[in-house]
Protein backbone atom coordinates (compact mmCIF):
# COMPACT_ATOMS: atom_id res chain seq x y z
CA UNK A 1 0.00 0.00 0.00
CA UNK A 2 1.16 3.53 -0.78
CA UNK A 3 0.03 6.54 1.24
CA UNK A 4 0.76 10.17 0.40
CA UNK A 5 0.99 12.24 3.58
CA UNK A 6 0.63 16.01 3.83
CA UNK A 7 3.91 16.62 5.65
CA UNK A 8 5.26 19.75 7.29
CA UNK A 9 8.16 18.34 9.29
CA UNK A 10 6.60 19.40 12.59
CA UNK A 11 5.93 17.18 15.56
CA UNK A 12 2.47 15.97 14.53
CA UNK A 13 3.22 14.97 10.93
CA UNK A 14 6.58 13.46 11.90
CA UNK A 15 4.85 11.16 14.38
CA UNK A 16 2.04 10.44 11.93
CA UNK A 17 4.49 9.49 9.18
CA UNK A 18 6.15 6.86 11.35
CA UNK A 19 2.83 5.68 12.86
CA UNK A 20 1.20 5.21 9.44
CA UNK A 21 4.17 3.20 8.22
CA UNK A 22 3.87 0.88 11.22
CA UNK A 23 0.09 0.51 11.32
CA UNK A 24 -0.53 0.04 7.61
CA UNK A 25 2.81 -1.59 6.74
CA UNK A 26 2.78 0.92 3.91
CA UNK A 27 5.16 2.95 1.83
CA UNK A 28 4.79 6.56 2.94
CA UNK A 29 5.40 9.32 0.44
CA UNK A 30 5.71 12.74 2.03
CA UNK A 31 4.21 15.74 0.25
CA UNK A 32 4.78 19.37 1.01
CA UNK A 33 3.30 22.25 -0.96
CA UNK A 34 5.50 25.32 -1.10
CA UNK A 35 2.90 28.05 -0.73
CA UNK A 36 5.17 30.67 0.79
CA UNK A 37 6.12 29.28 4.19
CA UNK A 38 9.77 30.02 3.32
CA UNK A 39 12.25 28.95 6.02
CA UNK A 40 9.97 26.13 7.17
CA UNK A 41 11.00 24.15 4.06
CA UNK A 42 14.74 24.00 4.79
CA UNK A 43 16.00 20.43 5.22
CA UNK A 44 12.52 18.98 4.83
CA UNK A 45 13.41 16.32 2.24
CA UNK A 46 16.19 14.81 4.35
CA UNK A 47 14.06 14.99 7.49
CA UNK A 48 11.18 13.14 5.85
CA UNK A 49 13.46 10.36 4.63
CA UNK A 50 15.09 10.00 8.06
CA UNK A 51 11.62 9.70 9.58
CA UNK A 52 10.71 6.86 7.24
CA UNK A 53 9.36 8.31 3.99
CA UNK A 54 10.45 6.64 0.77
CA UNK A 55 10.21 9.97 -1.07
CA UNK A 56 9.45 13.59 -0.34
CA UNK A 57 7.76 15.71 -2.99
CA UNK A 58 8.20 19.43 -2.33
CA UNK A 59 6.18 21.19 -5.02
CA UNK A 60 6.35 24.93 -5.60
CA UNK A 61 2.73 26.05 -5.89
CA UNK A 62 3.23 29.72 -5.02
CA UNK A 63 2.33 31.17 -8.41
CA UNK A 64 -0.71 28.92 -8.73
CA UNK A 65 -1.74 29.86 -5.19
CA UNK A 66 -1.63 33.57 -5.99
CA UNK A 67 -3.14 33.35 -9.49
CA UNK A 68 -5.83 30.69 -9.14
CA UNK A 69 -6.80 30.92 -5.48
CA UNK A 70 -5.95 34.25 -3.83
CA UNK A 71 -6.79 36.52 -6.78
CA UNK A 72 -10.22 34.99 -7.58
CA UNK A 73 -11.10 35.18 -3.89
CA UNK A 74 -10.10 38.85 -3.72
CA UNK A 75 -12.22 39.54 -6.82
CA UNK A 76 -15.16 38.17 -4.86
CA UNK A 77 -14.36 40.46 -1.91
CA UNK A 78 -14.51 37.42 0.35
CA UNK A 79 -13.84 38.07 4.04
CA UNK A 80 -15.23 35.56 6.54
CA UNK A 81 -17.42 37.09 9.24
CA UNK A 82 -16.27 40.54 8.09
CA UNK A 83 -12.79 40.10 9.58
CA UNK A 84 -10.89 37.01 8.43
CA UNK A 85 -9.07 37.17 5.09
CA UNK A 86 -9.22 33.35 4.77
CA UNK A 87 -5.47 32.78 4.54
CA UNK A 88 -5.49 29.22 5.87
CA UNK A 89 -8.87 28.33 4.36
CA UNK A 90 -7.89 29.15 0.78
CA UNK A 91 -4.59 27.26 1.03
CA UNK A 92 -6.00 23.88 2.03
CA UNK A 93 -7.79 23.07 -1.25
CA UNK A 94 -4.58 23.75 -3.17
CA UNK A 95 -2.54 21.55 -0.84
CA UNK A 96 -5.10 18.76 -1.20
CA UNK A 97 -5.11 19.17 -4.99
CA UNK A 98 -1.30 18.88 -5.00
CA UNK A 99 -1.46 15.76 -2.82
CA UNK A 100 -3.94 14.16 -5.19
CA UNK A 101 -1.72 14.86 -8.19
CA UNK A 102 1.23 13.22 -6.44
CA UNK A 103 -0.95 10.29 -5.35
CA UNK A 104 -1.92 9.64 -8.94
CA UNK A 105 1.66 10.04 -10.13
CA UNK A 106 2.85 7.54 -7.50
CA UNK A 107 -0.19 5.25 -7.96
CA UNK A 108 -1.00 5.55 -4.26
CA UNK A 109 -4.19 4.13 -2.79
CA UNK A 110 -4.64 6.71 -0.04
CA UNK A 111 -3.81 10.20 1.16
CA UNK A 112 -3.40 11.23 4.80
CA UNK A 113 -3.35 14.45 6.74
CA UNK A 114 -2.53 15.60 10.26
CA UNK A 115 -5.55 17.84 10.82
CA UNK A 116 -7.27 17.35 14.17
CA UNK A 117 -10.82 16.09 14.55
CA UNK A 118 -11.90 19.38 16.11
CA UNK A 119 -10.86 21.80 13.38
CA UNK A 120 -11.81 23.03 9.93
CA UNK A 121 -8.82 21.70 8.00
CA UNK A 122 -9.95 18.06 8.07
CA UNK A 123 -13.13 19.13 6.30
CA UNK A 124 -11.28 21.22 3.72
CA UNK A 125 -8.85 18.44 2.83
CA UNK A 126 -11.49 15.77 2.56
CA UNK A 127 -14.12 17.76 0.68
CA UNK A 128 -11.44 18.60 -1.89
CA UNK A 129 -10.59 14.91 -2.19
CA UNK A 130 -14.28 14.09 -2.59
CA UNK A 131 -14.52 16.55 -5.47
CA UNK A 132 -11.28 15.70 -7.25
CA UNK A 133 -10.48 12.07 -6.37
CA UNK A 134 -13.40 10.17 -4.85
CA UNK A 135 -11.59 6.89 -5.47
CA UNK A 136 -8.82 7.68 -2.98
CA UNK A 137 -9.04 6.61 0.65
CA UNK A 138 -8.47 9.44 3.13
CA UNK A 139 -6.72 8.59 6.41
CA UNK A 140 -7.12 10.98 9.35
CA UNK A 141 -5.08 9.64 12.31
CA UNK A 142 -6.39 12.20 14.79
CA UNK A 143 -9.87 10.71 14.32
CA UNK A 144 -8.53 7.23 15.08
CA UNK A 145 -9.09 6.30 18.73
CA UNK A 146 -5.98 4.11 18.79
CA UNK A 147 -3.82 7.03 17.70
CA UNK A 148 -5.34 9.36 20.29
CA UNK A 149 -4.93 6.75 23.03
CA UNK A 150 -1.25 6.36 22.15
CA UNK A 151 -0.68 10.11 21.90
CA UNK A 152 -2.94 11.94 24.37
CA UNK A 153 -0.54 14.89 24.46
CA UNK A 154 2.67 16.42 23.14
CA UNK A 155 4.81 14.78 25.82
CA UNK A 156 3.94 11.30 24.51
CA UNK A 157 4.65 12.39 20.95
CA UNK A 158 8.05 13.79 21.91
CA UNK A 159 8.89 10.59 23.78
CA UNK A 160 7.87 8.53 20.73
CA UNK A 161 10.17 10.60 18.52
CA UNK A 162 13.06 10.12 20.91
CA UNK A 163 12.49 6.36 20.98
CA UNK A 164 12.29 6.18 17.18
CA UNK A 165 15.16 8.64 16.65
CA UNK A 166 12.87 10.95 14.70
CA UNK A 167 14.46 14.39 14.34
CA UNK A 168 12.08 17.03 15.75
CA UNK A 169 12.51 20.28 17.59
CA UNK A 170 9.60 20.54 19.98
CA UNK A 171 8.79 21.35 23.58
CA UNK A 172 6.13 19.72 25.73
CA UNK A 173 4.20 22.98 25.80
CA UNK A 174 3.93 25.39 22.90
CA UNK A 175 2.65 28.91 23.62
CA UNK A 176 0.60 28.76 20.40
CA UNK A 177 0.55 27.14 16.95
CA UNK A 178 1.39 28.95 13.72
CA UNK A 179 0.57 28.44 10.05
CA UNK A 180 2.29 30.53 7.39
CA UNK A 181 1.78 30.96 3.67
CA UNK A 182 1.96 33.63 0.99
CA UNK A 183 -1.26 35.29 2.13
CA UNK A 184 -0.89 35.28 5.90
CA UNK A 185 0.51 33.98 9.16
CA UNK A 186 -1.99 32.62 11.68
CA UNK A 187 -1.68 31.99 15.41
CA UNK A 188 -4.06 29.92 17.53
CA UNK A 189 -4.37 27.65 20.57
CA UNK A 190 -2.18 27.66 23.67
CA UNK A 191 -2.12 31.01 25.48
CA UNK A 192 -4.41 32.45 22.80
CA UNK A 193 -7.34 30.36 23.98
CA UNK A 194 -8.05 33.10 26.53
CA UNK A 195 -9.93 35.71 24.44
CA UNK A 196 -9.14 38.39 27.04
CA UNK A 197 -5.37 37.98 26.48
CA UNK A 198 -4.00 41.05 24.64
CA UNK A 199 -1.65 39.95 21.87
CA UNK A 200 -0.76 43.50 20.88
CA UNK A 201 1.03 44.49 24.09
CA UNK A 202 4.76 45.30 23.72
CA UNK A 203 5.76 42.09 25.52
CA UNK A 204 4.22 40.03 22.67
CA UNK A 205 6.05 41.95 19.95
CA UNK A 206 8.26 39.01 19.00
CA UNK A 207 5.23 36.85 18.24
CA UNK A 208 4.62 38.61 14.92
CA UNK A 209 6.79 37.73 11.93
CA UNK A 210 5.32 39.46 8.86
CA UNK A 211 4.69 42.94 10.24
CA UNK A 212 6.03 45.48 12.70
CA UNK A 213 3.83 46.85 15.45
CA UNK A 214 1.99 49.94 14.19
CA UNK A 215 3.67 51.94 16.97
CA UNK A 216 7.07 50.98 15.55
CA UNK A 217 6.17 51.62 11.91
CA UNK A 218 7.81 54.57 10.10
CA UNK A 219 6.70 58.03 11.18
CA UNK A 220 6.41 59.02 7.53
CA UNK A 221 3.50 57.73 5.44
CA UNK A 222 4.20 55.86 2.20
CA UNK A 223 2.12 56.10 -0.96
CA UNK A 224 1.65 53.01 -3.13
CA UNK A 225 -0.13 52.64 -6.47
CA UNK A 226 -1.86 49.46 -7.61
CA UNK A 227 -2.89 48.97 -11.24
CA UNK A 228 -5.85 46.71 -11.93
CA UNK A 229 -7.02 44.97 -15.07
CA UNK A 230 -10.35 43.14 -15.00
CA UNK A 231 -10.26 42.95 -11.23
CA UNK A 232 -6.70 41.63 -10.89
CA UNK A 233 -3.75 43.67 -9.68
CA UNK A 234 -1.14 43.67 -12.45
CA UNK A 235 1.36 46.27 -11.22
CA UNK A 236 2.60 47.84 -7.99
CA UNK A 237 4.13 51.32 -8.10
CA UNK A 238 4.10 51.17 -11.88
CA UNK A 239 6.06 47.92 -12.06
CA UNK A 240 4.31 45.06 -13.88
CA UNK A 241 4.23 41.94 -11.71
CA UNK A 242 2.83 38.43 -11.75
CA UNK A 243 0.24 37.57 -9.07
CA UNK A 244 3.04 36.06 -6.98
CA UNK A 245 5.12 39.20 -7.46
CA UNK A 246 2.18 41.37 -6.42
CA UNK A 247 1.70 39.42 -3.19
CA UNK A 248 5.39 39.55 -2.32
CA UNK A 249 5.62 43.29 -2.99
CA UNK A 250 2.49 44.10 -0.99
CA UNK A 251 3.51 41.84 1.90
CA UNK A 252 6.78 43.74 2.19
CA UNK A 253 5.09 47.14 2.04
CA UNK A 254 2.27 46.19 4.39
CA UNK A 255 4.60 44.56 6.89
CA UNK A 256 6.80 47.66 6.95
CA UNK A 257 3.83 49.80 7.99
CA UNK A 258 2.17 47.34 10.38
CA UNK A 259 -1.06 46.80 8.43
CA UNK A 260 -3.24 43.71 8.29
CA UNK A 261 -3.18 42.51 11.91
CA UNK A 262 -6.45 40.98 13.11
CA UNK A 263 -7.48 39.35 16.40
CA UNK A 264 -10.87 37.67 16.21
CA UNK A 265 -13.15 34.98 17.58
CA UNK A 266 -14.57 33.03 14.64
CA UNK A 267 -17.18 30.33 14.20
CA UNK A 268 -15.63 27.05 13.07
CA UNK A 269 -17.57 24.89 10.64
CA UNK A 270 -17.56 22.00 13.12
CA UNK A 271 -19.64 24.02 15.57
CA UNK A 272 -17.37 25.68 18.11
CA UNK A 273 -15.94 29.15 18.42
CA UNK A 274 -12.20 29.65 18.05
CA UNK A 275 -9.87 32.56 18.73
CA UNK A 276 -7.35 33.35 16.02
CA UNK A 277 -4.74 36.04 15.43
CA UNK A 278 -3.67 36.82 11.87
CA UNK A 279 -1.10 38.83 9.96
CA UNK A 280 -2.23 39.56 6.39
CA UNK A 281 -0.23 42.63 5.32
CA UNK A 282 -0.35 42.26 1.55
CA UNK A 283 -3.84 40.79 1.47
CA UNK A 284 -5.25 43.68 3.49
CA UNK A 285 -3.84 46.21 1.01
CA UNK A 286 -5.05 44.22 -1.99
CA UNK A 287 -8.59 43.86 -0.64
CA UNK A 288 -8.81 47.56 0.21
CA UNK A 289 -7.45 48.78 -3.12
CA UNK A 290 -9.60 46.37 -5.11
CA UNK A 291 -12.73 47.66 -3.42
CA UNK A 292 -11.72 51.23 -4.19
CA UNK A 293 -11.31 50.31 -7.85
CA UNK A 294 -14.76 48.74 -7.86
CA UNK A 295 -16.39 51.86 -6.42
CA UNK A 296 -15.33 53.77 -9.50
CA UNK A 297 -16.00 51.20 -12.20
CA UNK A 298 -18.70 48.73 -11.14
CA UNK A 299 -22.39 49.15 -11.84
CA UNK A 300 -24.45 49.68 -8.67
CA UNK A 301 -26.78 46.69 -9.07
CA UNK A 302 -23.95 44.38 -10.11
CA UNK A 303 -22.01 45.48 -7.02
CA UNK A 304 -24.94 45.11 -4.65
CA UNK A 305 -25.79 41.65 -5.97
CA UNK A 306 -22.16 40.55 -5.72
CA UNK A 307 -21.95 42.00 -2.20
CA UNK A 308 -25.03 40.06 -1.16
CA UNK A 309 -23.22 36.87 -2.19
CA UNK A 310 -19.98 37.66 -0.34
CA UNK A 311 -20.98 36.05 2.99
CA UNK A 312 -21.98 32.85 1.21
CA UNK A 313 -18.84 32.82 -0.94
CA UNK A 314 -16.68 33.38 2.15
CA UNK A 315 -18.45 30.52 3.93
CA UNK A 316 -17.81 28.20 0.98
CA UNK A 317 -14.09 29.01 1.14
CA UNK A 318 -13.95 28.73 4.94
CA UNK A 319 -15.88 25.46 5.01
CA UNK A 320 -13.81 23.84 2.27
CA UNK A 321 -16.12 23.88 -0.76
CA UNK A 322 -13.63 25.51 -3.14
CA UNK A 323 -14.15 22.88 -5.85
CA UNK A 324 -17.87 22.46 -5.22
CA UNK A 325 -20.28 23.39 -8.04
CA UNK A 326 -21.90 26.19 -6.05
CA UNK A 327 -18.56 27.99 -5.54
CA UNK A 328 -17.73 27.60 -9.23
CA UNK A 329 -21.14 29.02 -10.15
CA UNK A 330 -20.61 32.02 -7.88
CA UNK A 331 -17.15 32.52 -9.37
CA UNK A 332 -18.65 32.77 -12.84
CA UNK A 333 -20.76 35.70 -11.67
CA UNK A 334 -17.76 37.26 -9.93
CA UNK A 335 -15.66 36.99 -13.09
CA UNK A 336 -18.40 38.68 -15.13
CA UNK A 337 -18.67 41.45 -12.52
CA UNK A 338 -14.96 42.21 -12.84
CA UNK A 339 -14.73 42.83 -16.59
CA UNK A 340 -14.58 46.62 -16.18
CA UNK A 341 -12.66 46.78 -12.89
CA UNK A 342 -9.65 48.42 -14.52
CA UNK A 343 -7.59 51.42 -13.49
CA UNK A 344 -5.26 52.67 -10.77
CA UNK A 345 -5.67 53.10 -7.02
CA UNK A 346 -3.29 55.07 -4.82
CA UNK A 347 -3.17 54.14 -1.13
CA UNK A 348 -1.50 55.74 1.84
CA UNK A 349 0.09 53.43 4.42
CA UNK A 350 0.71 54.81 7.89
CA UNK A 351 1.10 53.04 11.22
CA UNK A 352 -1.31 50.19 10.66
CA UNK A 353 -3.73 52.18 8.50
CA UNK A 354 -4.62 51.91 4.83
CA UNK A 355 -6.20 55.02 3.35
CA UNK A 356 -7.32 55.79 -0.17
CA UNK A 357 -5.33 58.63 -1.69
CA UNK A 358 -6.84 58.56 -5.18
CA UNK A 359 -8.39 56.40 -7.87
CA UNK A 360 -8.73 56.69 -11.63
CA UNK A 361 -9.94 54.56 -14.53
CA UNK A 362 -10.36 54.80 -18.29
CA UNK A 363 -13.77 53.17 -17.79
CA UNK A 364 -14.87 55.16 -14.74
CA UNK A 365 -18.62 55.40 -14.23
CA UNK A 366 -18.13 58.47 -12.08
CA UNK A 367 -19.03 61.63 -13.99
CA UNK A 368 -18.33 64.83 -12.03
CA UNK A 369 -20.47 66.85 -14.45
CA UNK A 370 -23.50 64.74 -13.48
CA UNK A 371 -22.63 64.42 -9.78
CA UNK A 372 -21.89 68.11 -9.24
CA UNK A 373 -24.10 70.19 -6.97
CA UNK A 374 -23.64 73.03 -9.43
CA UNK A 375 -25.58 73.38 -12.69
CA UNK A 376 -25.21 70.21 -14.78
CA UNK A 377 -23.75 71.19 -18.18
CA UNK A 378 -24.67 67.78 -19.65
CA UNK A 379 -28.33 68.06 -18.61
CA UNK A 380 -28.21 64.29 -18.01
CA UNK A 381 -30.10 64.66 -14.74
CA UNK A 382 -33.24 66.71 -14.33
CA UNK A 383 -33.87 67.36 -10.64
CA UNK A 384 -37.59 67.71 -11.28
CA UNK A 385 -37.69 64.02 -12.27
CA UNK A 386 -36.91 63.17 -8.64
CA UNK A 387 -40.43 64.24 -7.62
CA UNK A 388 -42.07 61.38 -9.51
CA UNK A 389 -39.29 58.98 -8.50
CA UNK A 390 -39.89 59.67 -4.82
CA UNK A 391 -43.69 59.62 -5.21
CA UNK A 392 -43.65 56.16 -6.82
CA UNK A 393 -41.25 54.71 -4.27
CA UNK A 394 -43.28 56.20 -1.43
CA UNK A 395 -46.58 54.77 -2.69
CA UNK A 396 -46.37 51.40 -0.93
CA UNK A 397 -45.20 53.07 2.27
CA UNK A 398 -48.21 55.41 2.27
CA UNK A 399 -50.62 52.56 1.52
CA UNK A 400 -49.16 50.48 4.32
CA UNK A 401 -49.30 53.34 6.78
CA UNK A 402 -52.95 54.00 5.98
CA UNK A 403 -53.95 50.35 6.22
CA UNK A 404 -52.11 49.70 9.47
CA UNK A 405 -52.86 53.08 11.01
CA UNK A 406 -49.27 54.21 11.44
CA UNK A 407 -48.78 57.72 12.64
CA UNK A 408 -45.96 59.97 11.63
CA UNK A 409 -43.21 60.32 14.17
CA UNK A 410 -41.24 63.45 14.91
What does this structure look like?
Strand 13 and strand 14 form a beta hairpin. The chain is built from 13 helices and 14 strands. The chain is elongated. The mean pLDDT is about 95. Helix 8 crosses helix 9 and helix 10 runs antiparallel to helix 11. The longest helix is centred in the N-terminal third of the chain and has 20 residues. The protein has 2 domains: about 140 residues, Rossmann fold; about 140 residues, Argininosuccinate synthetase, chain A, domain 2 (Alpha-Beta Complex), CATH 3.90.1260.10. By secondary structure, the protein is of the alpha/beta class.
Please tell me the overall pLDDT. Answer: 94
Radius of gyration: 25 Å
Percent of residues in helices: 40-55%
Q: Biggest sheet: strands, sense, closure?
A: 5 strands, parallel
Indicate the structural class. alpha/beta
What general outline do the C-alpha atoms trace? elongated
Annotation keywords:
5-stranded antiparallel sheet, 410 residues, Argininosuccinate synthetase, chain A, domain 2, elongated, 2 domains, Rossmann fold, 14 strands, 13 helices, alpha/beta
Task: Sum this structure up briefly.
The protein is α/β, with parallel strands linked by helices and 410 residues long. It has helices at residues 11-24, 44-51, 62-75, 87-106, 121-132, 145-150, 154-164, 243-256, 281-297, 300-319, 325-337, 368-371, 385-404, and strands spanning 2-6, 27-34, 55-60, 110-112, 137-139, 177-180, 185-188, 222-229, 232-236, 239-240, 261-267, 273-279, 343-350, 353-360. The strands form 3 sheets. A 5-stranded parallel β-sheet has the order 3-2-1-4-5, sandwiched between helices. A 5-stranded antiparallel β-sheet has the order 10-9-8-13-14, with helices on one face. The chain has a 4-stranded antiparallel β-sheet with strand order 6-7-12-11, with no helix packed on it.
